[in-house]
Amino acid sequence: MSIKTSGLHHVTAIGGDPQRNAGFYLRTLGLRLVKTTVNFDDPGTYHLYYGDQSGKPGTLLTFFPRPDAPSGRIGTGQATTTAFSVPEQSIGWWKDHLADAGITTGRIANRAGEDVLTFRDPDGLQLALVAHPQGDPRDPWDNGHVPAEHAIRGLHSVTLSVTEEDATAEMFGELGLTFAGQDSNRLRFTAGEGGPGAMVDVLVTPGTPRGLVATGTVHHVAWRAPDETSQAAWREELVDRGVHVTSILDRQYFRSIYFREPGGTLLEIATDQPGFAVDEPLLELGRALKLPPWLEPDREQIERALPKLDIPGENNRVDRTGRS
Q1: pLDDT in tens, 108-134
Q2: How far apart are CA 68 and CA 203, in angstroms?
Q3: Which of 3, 126, 260, 313 has CA atoms 20 to 30 A from the CA of 98?
Q4: Residue 131 pairs with which residues in a beta bridge?
Q5: pLDDT beneath 50: ranges in the chain
Q6: Using CA atoms, how far apart are residues 233 and 230, in angstroms rounded to an integer?
Q7: Which residues contact 229 (CB under 8 A, 6 or more apart)?
């Protein structure tokens, strides 16, 4: 393809209770809630975006929290692990920190020269913290719960589970990703210059049951497009190749198209702009429920349908460097 992605934009998962979700990601993992809105396709459900200070593409894990939804099943045909990037010397600190928070972790493993610590969130979503040996230059969000020297820098990678790799690998090549190596049944592909935030692993597990997307699983994985013109060209090329792609959808903070890779995982291509400060100041991100213009007339009805959600005050704190 003539268009190539520079890396991950965000990962969206399905959670359970929104208050528990916010408490875990803000206080245990130390991320910032950069937008409190609703699922535009299901306005009775929150859409919570967690990331760095401003919610830059490549730092975002987002949730549709549905308290009454059934538990999902992790398996093939979905993204099965979402990994965050942390400083190389911080894995041991994180293991102790998560243990203090009552979170069970796996052993610290080394994979492709990177230290990896696996765990699950309160709804069972599979997560990992990965320390890249070349480091990660992205600035962390410092809300006081996780020291800045150990804090998450953004997304590291996602792992997709498939029963057969050829067609998935071919599509990633068409999206501009490069095959970067293989370790047993795990294949790694990188976007752009590679490194944290620009990697996807494809885990090949023939005979593994297909996953069920519900609470505790990933709904979709989004890749970056620099602008709407590039996204439109990308969509045209995908359609020409016989891929079923949605129309371009206005998500208020970016524009999106959706399609499935051959292994079954739902993918999205999302634009970098306009970003999360389009409807509220940077200092106030995530504090209030924001609705797009076409849902604003239904605000009263929507607010009545949503569970109560209290946002911790440190979500809008000024960090120790004096930056807001």
Answers
A1: 999 888 999 999 999 999 999 999 888
A2: 31
A3: 313
A4: 86, 115
A5: 318-324
A6: 5
A7: none
Structure tokens at 175: 């999206």
Amino acid identity for residue 52 in this structure: D
Residue 63 bridge partners (DSSP): 13, 48
- Token pair for 306: 């949503």
Which two tokens mark 244? 């079923």
Instruction: Quote the CATH superfamily of domain 8-316.
Output: 2,3-Dihydroxybiphenyl 1,2-Dioxygenase, domain 1 (3.10.180.10)
